[in-house]
Amino acid sequence: MNRTEFIIATAIILLLAFAMGWFTYWLVHRFTRVAGGDMGEMDRLAQSLHEAEEMRDQAITYFENREQELMNQIAQTEAELRAAMEGLRDARQEAEEMRAYIERMHGRSA
Predict the structure, then answer these.
(1) Other C-beta atoms lying within 10 Å of the C-beta of residue 99
(2) SS3 readout for the chain
(3) pLDDT the model gives residue 35
């Protein structure tokens, strides 16, 4: 291989390497580029997503607060129920004592 053939072979190899690099760049750019119109749509979608996340956070906060209120109401209602049941138990016991007393009084007078 003389000097001229070596230069031509090197030029062809460099030209092929350049062509392959340019073609690869073109393919990558073609598949990854975002058009100007698409950018506006992406901004709109990002804004919508942000608003939806804020609404979700507000809903979660509301439901957590509401759940806490309801749990407090349940605890209060259960406490009132226990107090009412104790009062009823005491009233039944007192009524039983009164019946026994009345029966004893009627038994003595008869």
Answers:
(1) 10
(2) CCHHHHHHHHHHHHHHHHHHHHHHHHHHHHHHCCCHHHHHHHHHHHHHHHHHHHHHHHHHHHHHHHHHHHHHHHHHHHHHHHHHHHHHHHHHHHHHHHHHHHHHHHHHHC
(3) 57
Q: Which two tokens stand for residue 104?
A: 């004893």
Asked whether residue 50 falls in the same domain as residue 96, the answer is yes
2: domain range? 1-33
- The total number of structural domains that make up the chain: 2
Cα–Cα distances (Å) from 56 to 42, 43, 49, 68, 91, in that order, read 21, 20, 10, 18, 51
What is the value of pTM for the model shown?
Answer: 0.50
37 pLDDT band, cuts 50/70/90, is low
| Within a domain: 84 | yes
Tokens of 110: 């008869």
CA distances from 101 to 25, 88, 91, 106 (A): 106, 20, 15, 9
